[in-house]
Amino acid sequence: MARVVVNVPASAKRGELIEIKTLAAHTMETGFRRTQLGELIPRDIIRSFVCAYNGEEIFRAGLHPAIAANPLLVFTAVATESGTITFTWSGDNGYSATQSAAITVV
Q1: The whole model's pTM is what?
Q2: CA nearest 2: which of 24, 28, 30?
Q3: Contacts of residue 8, Cβ cutoff 8 Å, sequence gap at least 6
Q4: What is the pLDDT of residues 60-95, one digit of tens each?
């Protein structure tokens, strides 16, 4: 299982701009490096990230081999209603992780 961390405010005022942070623990191997014996290390990266607010996509990112290990994504959204923010990562070699966080809008 992949280790992921999400940071979403527990509550916000309706219409408030909130900052959302997420980090996925992943080596992000580019596929360009070689072992000490000269063999290529196979590529193993997170390819995509999607964030949905109450089922509606609010942010999407495509990741590529040049992204650092343990990618950190920070973005903003407008708090419109109470509900769930869902984070989904997918990548090479069957990598998949999903996490969610609740937010209360007053």
Answers
A1: 0.90
A2: 24
A3: 18, 20, 85, 101, 103
A4: 999 998 888 999 999 999 999 999 999 999 999 999
